[in-house]
Amino acid sequence: MHKIAKAPPKAQNKRVIIAKVVVVALYLVGAIGLSLPEYRDYFLMLTPAQLLITLLLVLGFHRGWSDAFPIFAAAAFWMGFGAELIGIHTGYIFGDYVYGPTLGPMLWQVPIVIGINWFLLVYLTGAVFYKLTDNDFFAALLGAGAMTVVDYIMEPVAVELDFWYWNSDNIPSGNYLTWFVVAFLIHLIYRKGNFEKGNPLAAMILTAMILFFTVLNFTLGV
Hints:
By secondary structure, the chain is mostly helical.
């Protein structure tokens, strides 16, 4: 049996550096483009592509390709997508809201990339916190808490850019509680999954996402 040759450490480090530069460019250019009214519509059309490129970067540097990983990925996608689906059609779970056209093609009135977004956020927050504790319950609390902070920063921007909008004047506080609960459940699956959880891009991408929405909160005046 032939062994698969691994890239030398220097080559691996070079790939990681290049990927991190791509991440910075992707989110920096996106933040600038969405902040400028004359270019905003063009960059809004690229929003689904930004998420898909982020997904490719995450998967390209994922190391734990065991049988458990696609099971977790599918669970994260469908649990997140399913919660949004129930929310859209019933007004329960997150509240009474509707998706706009910005996030691209929809399935049952929910953008397909929303499932990808749930997977990415669980994966990234999970990868950042996975070494902090061996306690799966506590780790899931940390991950879900981090995701709730991201959602809090993201919500005003998402409404302003027509990702989605609420059928009330204010974002309901219950949205954050139920977001935390759904995120916590998916994080438990992540923790129980028997696959390597380190990813050299995770912290960089999560930081870029947080800064992206933080900057847009200021530049859009929301």
